[in-house]
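Record type: monomer structure entry
Structure origin: computed from sequence
Chain ID: A
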Amino acid sequence: MTTRSVTIRGGTYPVILPSIRDPRLHVAAVIITIHVLGQLGLDFRVSIPQILAAILTCAVLEVALTFRQAHAFVWPASAMLTGSGVALILRVVGTPADDPWTTYGWYVFAAVAGLSLLSKYVIRYRGSHVFNPSNIGLVVAFIVLGSTRVEPLDFWWAPLNAWMITAYAVILVGGLLITRRLKLLELAASFWIGLAVGLGLLAASGHCMTANWAFAPVCGYDFWRVVVTSPEVLIFLFFMITDPKTVPSGRVGRIAFGLLVALASTLLMAPQTDEFGAKVGLLAGLVVVCVARPLVDHLAPKPSSTDDDPARFASELAAGGSLALPRRAARLGITALAVVLIGGGIVAAGTPARGVAVVGTEDPFDRDPTTVDPATLPVITVGQDVVEFDHELAGAGMQEVVVTLAQNLELENQALLRREDPILVAVDHGDRLVEMRALLDQAIVDGTTVLTHYDFDTIDVSLLVPFGAQDGLSLGLAGRGTMIEETRDAAGAVLSRESSPFDLTFAMRRATGTRWMNVAVLPAGG
């Protein structure tokens, strides 16, 4: 620390500035670099005023609190880390896209960051804070405010382009250097290995989640790969669980701490069916283990000189091989039983998240009454955002989607005529399924059926990214043309027919597997 002084109204107060060797400055450099990359190339939906609101709130509070305690002006390095950490992960639903200077929801960032910092002073054990401040603040915010107001940063940020490669390099190089210097690398490694094993077991059992960066549920190996290699998980393990003040002091205790966080996070993520729940489960694992840290400290061996002497540590570990065979067998048996019980618990906890995807859903017909000739379709304009996200949707892939849309719309009519809900389930999902079921119920009550046929003149395709619910990325097919509404009686005879222009956006995604399904019909620009 560099110490100077300042005189105010006749009083002299020390001014304590950080040393260039302070690890907190190095962590800050990594996080700020990620913020910059997020603004320039990764399309983070967080604005500069929102980021500054979180950082400055924490800085002002810390300066005021430390001045009151020590009568000195201390550079708020830890507080600014808390603020930048909150701003990196927190997102406020409704924040305008592509507006880096919007002040929308700045007060949410300020409130969450401020409460996160205050937790460090209010919740203490043996003279030190219990929780990583940004971690506990974020978990409480997500649980209290819910997915309609806030959401966490996605597990998946962007395709593996130059921006993402740079982000990975910054996180990995910075994280490895900092955790190694703080002698916390083993803790980070134990967490990552434990999480990879736990999520691997969960993925093998058929786990799925919906995410706002995927058209279909993310299941099995894809779920494991995305989460385990997520830059957000890397930030969590390098810069959140490795807070030196909230982890045990010994090597064994730290390894156990990392494994326990991995286990708690896996169990909390297991029942979640969407990314919001999975991310909150990941973060909450650290909260749970921090609560149990006194027990970990009590059970773990006390730090010794072998913690800093790898050769001696290895020799003492080898000497353990002289234990009597029955004693070693008993330990191995207990360990094996614990592994089986934990594995069974993970699989059981994941039961609600299995069956989210029904891959290969087919139309419930012996014959297809809705054949669509692609030659009858209008010219399809595909937005650059779609091309960059999935280049296969730029040509024949998009024609297939539009053909499926036309089929789905006609199958909806067939469902209304036949009074068959399973047809709707095969082609509709979410809001569209609710809407069409209401029309089916009304048709049954009234005895008349209103059918809608669409004749498209133009179709413009873009991405529809949900914000808050994290219930799946959709394609938005903005269509214009003529729609014909037919009213038929119970016998199927046409009672009336009216035509009118339409300008609607049809939202589609692979909600239950491979088939593109209608999930919403929105007004123009919706």
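Annotation 1: The longest helix spans residues 325-349.
Annotation 2: The CA atoms of residues 16 and 254 lie 31 Å apart.
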